[in-house]
Write a structure and sequence with these properties.
- The complex is a heterodimer of chains A (341) and B (623).
- Chain A has 341 residues and is of the alpha/beta class.
- Chain A folds into two domains: 224 residues, Spore Coat Polysaccharide Biosynthesis Protein SpsA, Chain A (Alpha-Beta Complex), CATH 3.90.550.10; 67 residues.
- Chain A contains eleven helices and nine strands.
- Chain A has a seven-stranded mixed beta sheet with strand order 4-3-2-5-7-6-8, sandwiched between helices.
- The longest helix of chain A has 30 residues.
- Chain B is an alpha/beta fold.
- In chain B, strand 14, helix 11 and strand 15 form a beta-alpha-beta unit.
- In chain B, helix 11 packs parallel to helix 12.
- Chain B is globular.
- The chains are: A alpha/beta (341), B alpha/beta (623).
- At the A-B interface, strand 1, helix 2, strand 4, helix 3 and helix 9 of A face helix 12, strand 16, helix 13, helix 18 and helix 19 of B.
- Strand 4 of chain A pairs antiparallel with strand 21 of chain B.
């Protein structure tokens, strides 16, 4: 009944129009009803589609119903993790097995109304590589809107890209995009920003919020801390992945400068005013800052060496087309693409 | 940089300074010393393993053909110095033609090969004798080295270009190689040899020549005579001025030559300028003044047509909203590359243009089949666009240039020629930049100077996109971020030989400043990173232990000091603050050493392969 497949295996060929990947990670509603509602919406646009459910070990309760669904409907595949890997990895596992020309992601609970599928699909047809949706109009509590508004404004400040609802799990994209952008940790929230940085055309469309999604969400403290870390990660990924020393150097050199100034001040006091330093904690502070600053710069240097070492495998540009096309160029371009992470 | 050494082979009694005292009919009365002096010079040159161009008088070729053959056998180039050292301005065009023709024939019959270069007696190619160039072309000369662009009582055209150029005459073009001058106080000052070399301090001449090499990017053309090292020559009674010019410091000349040949490198004229692009000038007369006017043509090689081992050239051109420039660029490229004996492909990399650049390129590719277009998905910057082009390029030589017509495609063949000399990378140097001074040139000048000092680099111009590479080099490095600014150093990491070449630079039609104060910190950070990468990329532990070492020393000193205080005074405790500072330093030492190990791990860790992540998946299947 269950069998372990390796993630390294070749991506399957494109044989369908659409693959809908549903990561079952945080919570789930009635999955069968969800499947019926959304497959009806998809069927209005295309007949050739499949659903892939990826179940994290934290949601094993979803497995019985999914097993039943595999037996009763065709065009459903269900994969599961034996460990806790989170949403980004679940999406990644789904992407690796998708057979559709377009890949959609869908939350395992009602976030948006099923009719939104058509909006996203049309936007995707209209020269977009990635379509993200925002729950709009919202039927939510104002508390939810305030906390999500703050988060998005901060991520706009840090990344320079303006999106309104990164937590909305309903997105559509071309398959090549899923193969090019690595998803890990909590990066799925920033898929749109990562795609834009790589030159993909990203559009955001409004999808009416599902009434069932309208609950006041007060998260655990740890979740807020995670979101804060996500923001910092986004900032770093957008600006400094290629030049870590610019980041660490700016921080480190300013800390060192303060430490140096303190030490210099104390030295002047000692030499010209004869003040004893033995009982001044300021000396310890100055030294700590000096040392911490130098260590920060040193970490930046390590970063530079890592980037240089791996520069051959990564690349910052993305080729869309070569003209006139020759087999050789295609091979070179795809070889270059394979080397990219 | 290799300079050109020229030697005017004439005897002590044949010089213009004595022409008032010694008539040609009397020449036979004098003892000929030219042969011995020239042989000494040949020895001197052989000792320094250098070549030179010898401009020989026709009458010497007639009387001592063996001397010419000896010079040639040593590998030197031979040119013509006229028949009997008669200045052009004392001859009519017909007399001059007769003189030159006989001289050329005598030298060619002595050597058995054609002579291509000419130098007028006493640099007598002046304002009033420029007609002589036409005669030289008609008599089959390819280059002339007779113009001295200085003010002088006997010779000189102060307004002539200071560096080699091509003159268009009605009979055809001829390359002119003016004697080297240095620009001082708004005047051209002669530094190129002969009497100036004997009379002026040696250090001044050497430093001036170096300045011309380094600051103006051109080889010098230096001259002297065999009689100048001959202390034993019979002295003539003549005017004081001529005596000073001819005899002063003649005893120190050989020593000075030794020093010069040690301090600078020399070769023959044709060799030194083989891969230089010469501007073409037209001579016009206006209100009694001679004007040298540059024309648009600017490519000519000296001597023989270069031989290329290249089989295919790839030109990589990043394009960002350059629609109007594309058609003229293609036309220029075709003109520039037409006479090269190999195929080329022009890879235009569209860096997310928002205008119709791509469509225009596709249309142009009907007329220009060499065009290839790589369309990038967005705007990734020039370096990345170039890198994208490099991955597609399949020529064995690669050139890169801007798409905005600021670079001149005519420079590409010259750069390829330089590659053939055994270089892996040839960088363009926009010596005469056509950009705004304060907003562009000044900041880039400061940045360049900073980088040059920090990296002990020799490249003057880091912003010039016009470069030529051997394809192996292009495949060896991968540019990321702003690495293009340090392309030379990155190439040197791969063991590349790098050369620099002065290129043409034309005014920009539009564009915006890249440098600015905000960039300074970034450049500084990148500079530190690059220094670290160059020295310690394969041994990070060593690099970090060098950073950590001072902390180890400091903490040891502080611990020693505290212990000494504790032992020598009556205190019952170690001094708390001192010891804690020492502990901090020691902890920092440990931390930095650990970072070094992480570095070793980072460079040795296996690369991520095709596996996307490390999770195992099971599948629920239909039964």
């Amino acid at each position: 009944m269950s069998d372990v497949t390796s993630p390294e295996k070749e991506s399957p060929a494109e044989t369908l129009d659409a693959t809908i990947v549903v990561p079952v990670v945080e919570r789930f509603d009635d999955l069968e009803q969800l499947y019926l509602d959304f497959s009806a919406a998809v069927a209005r646009v295309t007949d050739s589609f499949e659903f892939i459910f990826v179940v994290d070990a934290s949601q094993v309760n979803a497995l019985p119903v999914l097993k039943k669904m595999v037996q009763s409907y065709s065009g459903i595949r269900v994969y599961g993790f034996n460990g806790y890997f989170g949403e980004a990895t679940a999406l990644d596992a789904g992407f690796a097995r998708a057979r559709g020309r377009f890949v959609f992601t869908l939350a395992s609970y009602y976030q948006v109304v099923p009719e939104a599928f058509e909006t996203v699909y049309r936007a995707l047809m209209n020269r977009s590589d990635l379509v993200v949706s925002r729950r709009h109009p919202r039927v939510d509590s104002s508390f939810n809107r305030a906390q999500s508004g703050t988060f998005h404004y901060l991520s706009y400040l840090l990344s320079g890209y303006r999106f309104h609802d990164v937590s909305c799990g309903f997105r559509g994209m071309r398959r090549e995009l899923t193969q090019e952008i690595p998803l890990y940790g909590d990066l799925h929230r920033f898929l749109a920003a990562l795609a834009m940085k790589r030159g993909y055309r990203v559009t955001e469309v409004a999808a009416p919020q599902h009434p069932q999604d309208a609950r006041t969400r007060i998260h655990r403290i740890a979740d807020y801390a995670h979101r804060l870390l996500d923001l910092m990660n986004l900032f770093f990924l957008m600006k400094f992945t290629k030049r870590p020393l610019r980041f660490f150097g700016a921080i480190g050199s300013s800390i060192t400068a303060v430490g140096f100034a303190l030490c210099a001040y104390l030295t002047v006091l000692r030499l010209f005013y004869g003040q004893a330093l033995a009982d001044r904690p300021l000396l310890v502070l100055g030294t700590v800052l000096l040392v911490a600053g130098i260590q920060t710069v040193a970490i930046g240097l390590i970063g530079e060496i890592i980037v240089y070492t791996h520069a051959r495998e990564s690349r910052d540009y993305h080729i869309e087309a070569v003209f006139p096309e020759s087999a050789q160029d295609k091979a070179a371009a795809s070889a270059a693409a394979d080397k990219g992470i | 940089m290799i300079n050109a050494l020229t030697i005017d082979v004439e005897d002590y009694y044949q010089v213009s300074a004595f022409e008032g005292e010694i008539d040609y009919s009397d020449w036979d009365r004098f003892e000929s010393r030219v042969s011995g002096n020239t042989e000494r010079l040949l020895g001197l040159l052989a000792e320094h393993n250098m070549r030179a161009t010898f401009f020989v008088l026709g009458c010497i070729a007639q009387k001592q053909p063996a001397l010419l053959r000896m010079i040639r056998k040593e590998g030197h180039e031979i040119g013509c110095h006229g028949l009997r050292h008669v200045r052009i301005n004392t001859q009519s065009p017909e007399e001059f033609r007769k003189d030159v023709r006989e001289a050329k024939a005598s030298i060619e019959s002595a050597l058995g090969e054609p002579v291509k270069g000419y130098r007028a007696a006493s640099f007598s190619l002046r304002d009033d004798t420029l007609w002589a160039l036409e005669v030289l072309v008609e008599e089959g000369f390819e280059f002339d080295s007779s113009i001295f662009p200085v003010l002088h009582d006997r010779y000189g055209i102060p307004g002539a270009p200071r560096f080699p150029f091509v003159i268009k005459t009605p009979s055809g073009p001829i390359a002119e190689l003016p004697l080297t001058t240095r620009r001082l106080f708004g005047h051209n000052f002669p530094i190129a040899g002969g009497g100036y070399f004997r009379l002026l301090p040696y250090g001044f001449i050497r430093n001036s020549m170096r300045a011309v090499n380094d600051q103006e990017g051109t080889p010098c053309i230096f001259y002297f005579h065999p009689w100048e090292i001959d202390t034993g020559q019979p002295r003539q009674k003549t005017t004081l001025l001529s005596r000073i010019r001819h005899y002063h410091n003649i005893d120190k000349m050989e020593d000075r030559l030794h020093r010069l040949l040690t301090d600078l490198r020399f070769t023959s004229v044709s060799e030194a300028f083989r891969s230089y692009r010469l501007r073409t000038f037209q001579i016009t007369r206006k209100e009694g003044k001679t004007l040298f006017e540059p024309t648009e043509e600017n490519l000519r090689f000296l001597g023989s047509r270069p031989q290329f081992s290249t089989k295919k050239l790839s030109v990589v051109i990043p394009v960002y909203n350059e629609a109007e420039n594309l058609a003229p660029l293609c036309t220029e490229l075709r003109q520039a590359l037409a006479h090269l004996p190999f195929d080329s492909e022009w890879i235009f990399v569209d860096d997310g243009s928002t205008d119709d650049s791509v469509e225009r390129l596709k249309r142009l590719s009907v007329e220009f089949p060499a065009i290839k277009v790589v369309k990038l998905r967005g705007n990734f910057g020039q370096t990345q666009a170039m890198q994208a082009g490099f991955t597609i390029a399949n020529g064995d030589a690669v050139a890169s240039m801007d798409g905005d017509l600021q670079n001149d495609p005519a420079d590409i063949p010259v750069m390829l020629q330089r590659l053939e000399e055994g270089y892996d990378l040839v960088c363009g140097w926009r010596k005469e930049r056509k950009d705004a001074w304060l907003s562009r040139r000044f900041p880039s000048l400061v940045a360049n100077r900073l980088i040059r000092v920090a990296l002990k680099s020799t490249i003057h111009d880091r912003g010039c996109s016009l470069k030529a590479y051997r394809s192996e080099l292009v495949k060896a490095f991968r540019l990321y971020s702003d690495m293009h600014r340090f392309l030379q150093e990155v190439s040197v990491i791969s063991g590349a030989r790098v050369s620099e070449l002065v290129v043409n630079h034309r005014a920009r039609r539009y564009g915006k400043t890249k440098y600015g104060i905000s960039r300074t910190f970034k450049v500084l950070a990148d500079l530190c990173a690059l220094k670290m990468i160059i020295r310690f990329r394969s041994k990070p532990l060593l690099g970090f232990s060098l950073i950590a070492f001072p902390f180890a020393v400091l903490s040891t000193l502080i611990f020693g000091w505290s212990a000494w205080i504790r032992l020598t005074s009556d205190m019952q405790e170690f001094p708390a603050v001192d010891v804690s500072v020492g502990i901090l330093f020691f902890a920092s030492f440990v931390f930095l050493m650990m970072l070094g190990f992480i570095g070793e791990l980072a460079i040795n860790a296996p690369n991520r392969t095709t596996s996307r992540s490390d999770h195992l998946v099971f599948e629920e299947r239909k039964q």
